[in-house]
Model the fold of this input.
Amino acid sequence: MKSFDYIRATDTGHASAEAAEGAVIIAGGTNLLDLMKLEVMTPDALVDITRLDLKQIAATDDGGLRIGTLVTNADLAAHMTVRTDYPMLSQALLAGASGQLRNKATTGGNLLQRTRCYYFYDTATPCNKRAPGTGCAAMEGATRLHAILGGSDQCIATHPSDMAVAMRALDAVVEIEASTGETRHVPLSDFYLLPGDTPQIETVLRRGDLITAVILPAPAQGVQSYTKVRDRASYAFAMVSVAGRIAMDGDRIGQASIAFGGIAPQPWRDADAEAALVGQPATRETFARAADILLADAKPAKDNAFKVPLTRRTLIATLTDLCGKAAS
Amino acid sequence: MNTHTKMDAHHVMDAPDHRNRLDDMAQGILGTTMDRPDGPLKVTGTATYAHEDHPAGMLHGVLVRATVPRGTLDGTHDAAVLALPGVRRVLHGDRFLRNPAQGTANEAPVQGSREIFYVGQPVALVVAETFEQARHGAQRLVLQMTPGDAVTDPTADDIAVERDPDEQSSMGDLDKAMKDAAFSVDQTYTTPGHTSAAMEPHAAVAWWDGDKLTIRASAQMLKYNKNEIADSLGIDVRDVHMLAPYVGGGFGGKLGISPEAVAAALAARDLGAPVSVAMTRRQVSEATMRRSETVQQIRLAADADGVLTGIGHVARVSQLEDEDYAEPVTQATPFLYRGKNREIGLELVRVNATCAGSVRAPGEAVGLTALEIAMDELAVAAGIDPVELRRRNIPEVDPSDDKPFSSHTLEAALDDGAKAFGWDGRKTKTTDGDWLVGSGMSSAVRVNMIGESHARVTLNPDGTLLIETDMTDVGTGTYAILTQIAGEMLGVTPDRITTVLGDSDLPESAGSGGSWGASSAGSSVFLACERIRQEIAKTLDCDEGDLTLKDGIATAANRQVPLAQVLGDAPLTSTGVIEPGKTSEAVRQATFGAFFAEVGVHRVTGEVRVRRMHGSFAAGRILNAKTARSQCLGGMTFGIGMALTEAMIFDPRDGRLVNGDFGEYHIPVNADVPQLTVNFVHERDPWANPMQAKGIGELGICGAGACVLNAIHDACGVRVRDLPATLDRILDGLPEV
Ligand SMILES: Cc1cc2nc3c(=O)[nH]c(=O)nc-3n(C[C@H](O)[C@H](O)[C@H](O)COP(=O)(O)OP(=O)(O)OC[C@H]3O[C@@H](n4cnc5c(N)ncnc54)[C@H](O)[C@@H]3O)c2cc1C
Ligand code: SF4
Done:
């Protein structure tokens, strides 16, 4: 590990000022430290935000929930309001990592965790995300973990978070404090960037930006769930995950909000697929049509063609289940 | 030494020992669930593993890996790294180990860092004051390499195939048997590479005192390891002192020495200070041993009753050049079942990838797993219950050479297991919510052997007992069982027994590996104790057979004397030596068992969950019911891993291991392992050794994966022949959702 300076932030302004100077923010450290040991990331300085007062979960004026960035994944999953009003989020968090990691991992850190692409972690291989312009070792290599949607010819890595997938389906908004002191709100739908020609740039965050909170809108109607399909029963990243919410309008689907993990460079949502559900009867044909729309542009790599039928099946089963529950 | 008399007991296992002497003993601790004496140290973190021994002034070394699969290392830019804070030295050279020594090699493996043979080969060591500084230096060291032509795809069509004549055998006419068969199976099965995955990564701390080298190592077999170290360094073995009192798992990966041990010794000599070299998990995965992937073609021919008339088992495995070891895939095939027409063979191809070696029951773990899937396919084809099919195919003698079995317990294990599992009332082709549920079974078999082993036992005048051998406890329970054997033989309670292991200056044992440790080291302790009993009997003027020793009291005929009184003021010391003899060849020795599993296959996703699993095993005398059971639980867990999750993924372009950490190399986690149950079937095998005990460490994995895979077929009709059964291999066979 390269040696680095350690700075303990005294307040958010201090943290973002240091970050603007080039220090990398460390929260739980469960992802960053691993990357530093492997020298995938080699910061000259870390600014530790863990003593800042960003650990609250509080109701917002419009009936939503403001989750401080330092709320741990364990605490968030266990929070009563989250469990009752945003159950897919609690389920997603509990489907991720392990108990020990969830005790340490934070909300902001989870959103910003890096991909699990094998080659990203091996500094002896080309990787446009780790070392821009060197190429992509995965493209012709081992791609079980990789994207079938949203990738580019520069990078086909997936975003590994479970939490972010649920937050995407819940229309979460990220609260960001810049080093100028100004606070802005970015919907999660705009927060992540597709790899395109610059896979090293993963979000809209700018130098010096500090995530201070994630805000959930007031609980939406309907029934929700998070389903994670993986290679072992626990402690494995999603091959495919589906965060879904369905509200029925009589015997037709009234609202549908569906996000996917494990198949794209960011938590994936497809407005056309959702639109194909709304106003339709809750039948297998409807569900299959939505799946067809979602997967029409799927581009599997060598090892991950199975994600196409797997996503399709998981989506259909999830919709069947949610519509059934929402109707009753 | 202040010993009473010099009393060695040397026994060559040339004839069966039917006396079952241990059954006559009175202490009553052998075979019990006695806790490990080392347990409290381990759970409180006070048992130190290799890298935790930090002599004053210790420096840290981190190995540097080659990043091309073949070629030459023309130079390294040392100066830039030497300029980094804390860095003290960059080493490379002719004595670096290219790869680990194979188990029982007793000599150095291929050495040298100039020529590169695989991605991950350690070619340099950066030594610094802290581990982090060394790791940074290692990461920064620029290697000048000239890439050469590499072979990295073992399945390439044009790859050269080697066939060792000793590994090929043929009997009768299998082609004809297949043609004439009422039922037959002809399929190809593949298994991926496996890493040993011991919890403690390989590590060594070395220091020199003049010409004398001491190494704290993570090693399984010190008797061989010290010679491997000496040969690697070009020094006299009498100058090598190895210590491995606690080892956090080996699973074959630590049978022979690995690159870190030699690098630590070289650096310590060069720098005149103790040097520790600990491998990271990725380095363990890349630069120690892998189990080779296998491609196995299996043919079974059976008559109308399901009785086998022919067996074909030809396996292809891979290895690095200049290494002889080939995964012995077909080891148990010649003697497990009937069938006089046979083709058994082992083929080897050379690849530029991590060295292949012994990992968790080499041979049967993968070979039997494939054979037992084939047997299940035969059972389905013939419409015969799979347990019954196996019963019908148990041979009277080893069909390959007509040798008798020393003891045959497969039928007993099948019966016991079927009953314990409730095979007759099992869940088959049924559903439970979203889960398709089915059951499967498989046989277990593992060859049994002993190795020459020495142990010294000292009975002190105060009635305490000291057991000394260079044997290791790799987390298996050696401290416990040697304590129990000696305590049982000499009537001493465990609290008065000290067992010292893992020191190469102590009497040489067979070491831990190949499931022979307990039988071999245990027998040497038994023999030493038997000799001490004879001496006590002489003092008491009775026959050894009439002597009862219990709780420190000797009872002979009508006399009761405290041991302390018998001994006078000098200790009784005996060195016991067991040596394999004619019983290894005269009979076929093996352990047997049977596995049963119930699994659920998710109807939507193809995910598989084992719902319950049972194993019944016969392994001769069980020395400690708890540690023996734990061995079987571990083996069955490995079986679940082999069936469902474990696979080393190599990039076919350059042989690079891409999943060298436990995040992506999936060993089963708690949630993957349901309640496992284990039964032991009573057995005393007189041919095995004077304790009538047999190896148990590996039996629990041999064939274990097959019961899970067979249950998958029962549950959903998908026959997985390419392991592991990840969901993508099942999905296509599931009904539409
Ligand atoms: C073995 C293992 C298994 C895992 N399995 C899963 C899984 O199944 N599902 C899953 O979703 N996750 C999984 N994880 C990932 C885990 O969820 C993340 O490591 C964790 O959420 C990161 O949070 P952290 O606070 O530790 O982040 P850190 O490691 O501290 O930081 C991560 C990144 O976020 C940045 N950052 C952190 N906070 C802020 C902030 N407030 N403002 C701006 N930047 C910030 C850091 O600079 C850094 O780049 C796993 C991790 C491990 C190690
Ligand atoms: S997929 Fe992306 S992260 Fe992976 S090697 Fe290619 S560029 Fe790097």
